[in-house]
Amino acid sequence: MASIKKSISTKLDGNGYGQILYRVSITKNAKVRIKTNVFVPTKRWDEAKERINIGKSIGFERAELVESDAKLKDLEAKILRLCEMYPAEVLTKEWIENVLELCADTPAQQLTTQLIDERTEKQEHPERFIKVSFYDTMEEYLTGTRYSNVREANFRVLIRALRRYEWFVRLSDKERKDFVLDIDTMDKEIISDIESFLRNEHTLLEEYPRIFKKIPNTTDKRRSPKPRPRGNNTICAMFNKLRAFFNWCNENGKTNNRPFLGYNGVTSEIYGTPYYITLEERNHIADFDLSEHPSLEVQRDIFIFQCCIGCRVSDLMRLTPTDIIDGEIHYIPHKTKEENPATVHVPLNERARSLVEKYKGVDKQGRLFPFIAAQNYNDSIKEIFRKCGVDRMVTILNPTTGEEEKRPICEVASSHMARRTFVGNLYKKVKDPNLICPMSGHKVGSAAFARYREIDKETRAETIKLID
Predict the structure, then answer these.
(1) In the chain, where are the structural domains located?
(2) Which of 120, 305, 339, 391 would disulfide-bridge 408, Cβ 3.0–4.6 Å?
(3) Greater confidence, 292 or 17?
(4) DSSP labels, 28-90
């Protein structure tokens, strides 16, 4: 962690004032000296405590000392923030002093890499700022696009990854130390380079730790800021967002550039056959005695209820008794409410109704059930499966490697399995997407629905009988 040692210059002006100097220890081997341009009387500098001794000063002198003290505290806060945001290679004496001057009007807590990059770039290349920057254009796109909060948050994951890519290029290639992404110059080679970066970013942490400290993989403090290995589907999803951004730029006259033309990298997501529990397994879990584990019993009941209505966990945790109308759950899926605000109606079966009645009035926030954090809910589901002995082997597609794997279903169980259980078992019974999609929130004929649907052995056998 960076630290600052403060002292006063021995070179005094005619009034006995000396300049306060900072010796900034960025790392064990990286130290710089910074001139603060703050001058105070030597008699008012406490060398031992490294601070201005305002003491019993009065009148003009006191006002002057208070102002100087505030400037020093502001400079110290800004310098420490810069040390948190930027790699040691960037933090030269000249660069820090220049940023302090350019951002003199900005409080330390409001300093961002985007603001600093823009001001330093504008200083060095004023002609470049005649047009809007790449990230400002992205912000304009987000402002004008009807994205849900979740989808906007996912888009900002892409933005942070692109910013880290910029810094990686600057630090790893001396010939491109001023590299910036540009909507007019991005091409298929840069897209391919970004793909390689996204695929290998988790291996760069050790070599470029300050990049990830400055621009973390996530802003959620409950999660590790360290990047994890990404598979084709994850990269494809990120590129779909980037492609949508460029489509918007083309349609709105921002650029004629189409960087994905000729790009032959990851272009489509690949999913294996969905795995979910049968109705028999669902009922076994629902009726299993968990009285010795009351907290798990509650989460088991919530999972079973989710299996009965098929909503996403983000919608499940927002449900209240007012969402039950004439024996049906009514809700607008949060994920698609901005683009397709259609209300989903799901009749409650007897099992679901009994669970609602069991937890009536229990939640202090007035929700249908006493929900816990989504991740804790997922962990509980895995533990419930293990205790109930639901551990048959299933074939999954590893999201990182893209290879098939055999895993016990208890190891891969999650809240989303409840949604697959709802859709998959309904499809086995009625085999009509037009009946199921309105209750699951899918569009009829969507690729997403096709991924949830499994053509089981019974259906295949019935189909073969048609050509007997």
Answers:
(1) 3-127, 131-251, 279-467
(2) 391
(3) 292
(4) SS-EEEEEEEEEEEGGGEETTTTEE--TT--HHHHHHHHHHHHHHHHHHHHHHHHHHHS-TTT
